[in-house]
């Protein structure tokens, strides 16, 4: 083997082995994953569809979701962060390529009665040899960061759409509460009319009249807060779709026409691949591991190769046949001798940041699993609650009809009627709240299952 080649191998082989030694391995998350969800039941898996909100059967909700997809400001900001990360990736990748620059010059000088023109052109190139893989690690960190931003954007989209669905349902519930409250007020006024007739006939007292007037006033006092909540709900929807409140109108009346779409999870391990927030935490951890590699390579020597060539002449048109040609080749090796511990401190900082992100990754996994368990329980219990509330409201309405008829006949006292009224009013309001809770629990399950994101 020729001596120059042998010397080159003597230098290159240890450097390559050292470069491999700087690469760090990503730690395992260390979170035990069960085979199935505790509250999933025996139903077969049914992961959400990407357009999961269409299962509620509301064209208006579909329209608002489309508007939010195109106009939500949080989504727009997330897309801008993706573009920033993409630019950072290109910047990091440039360090793996040579840097080439070209220049030109021209001048005129006078002396000893003579004027002389001079022209020149130069070309230079430099390249930092990635001996230890630091530049490749920097690019790898930028790639993982870009992935994390994409996952973050997906998680932001799921959160924004779920918030819009919940806000829309709350608005419909407020309108239904307003309708129920109006019906309650009409019933209270109808009974007030009967009591006034009885007072005139001498079969009821002034106290009876005052008590029922109080009931009417209480029912009237509940209306302004409901109207305020409705207006504020429209404003909240406008903000979620990125529109001024004056430009948004919501025509939905109540919750009765909405369906409850079904969804059920598969294995917990599948969930972790479907939740973009978990994937974002994983990508951030991978980026931090790459940053450790970058920090470690800064402790090692760096090799830079550079080359420069130039030509000059007295006439611009003769630069292709220059009067003078200059070229140079240079290789330089640099190694930090003393920096006050800055580079080793950077390694320790990167390692500590990776440890924090590992904890965040584990927390994201546990949060995702807990979200699904909570959402399954919430949907099951709110479904049962709505059924029971419906039965209670139906029975309370029947009791109120009987009590009103008996009041007209004079066979019951006012205390019995007042109790029956309050039971009916409370049962109607509780039924609306139960319907809203069930709809929002369904939205929570879709959100916990990753919202149909792939």
Summed up:
This protein has a four-stranded antiparallel β-sheet with strand order 1-2-3-4, with no helix packed on it. A hairpin with a 2-residue loop joins strand 1 (99-111) and strand 2 (114-129).
| Average of per-residue pLDDT values | 89
Helix content: 55-70%
Shape designation: elongated
- Major sheet strand order: 1-2-3-4
Oligomer: single chain
Which residue ranges are poorly predicted, with pLDDT under 50 across at least 5 consecutive positions? 1-21
Strand content: 5-15%
- How many helices? The count is 9
Strand count, sense and closure of the main sheet? 4 strands, antiparallel
Tally the beta strands: 4
The radius of gyration computed from the alpha-carbon positions, rounded to a whole number of angstroms, is 37 Å
Order of helices and strands: HHHEEHHHHEEHH
Distance between the termini: 56 Å
Which class do the helix and strand fractions yield? alpha+beta
Describe this structure in words.
The protein is an alpha+beta fold. It has 9 helices and 4 strands. The chain has helices at residues 3-22, 59-71, 73-94, 134-201, 206-240, 268-274, 276-297, 342-409, 414-448; strands at residues 99-111, 114-129, 302-313, 324-334. The protein has a 4-stranded antiparallel beta sheet with strand order 1-2-3-4, with no helix packed on it. A hairpin with a 2-residue loop joins strand 1 (99-111) and strand 2 (114-129). Helix 7 (276-297) packs antiparallel against helix 8 (342-409). It is elongated. The chain starts with a helix and ends in a 6-residue tail after the last helix.
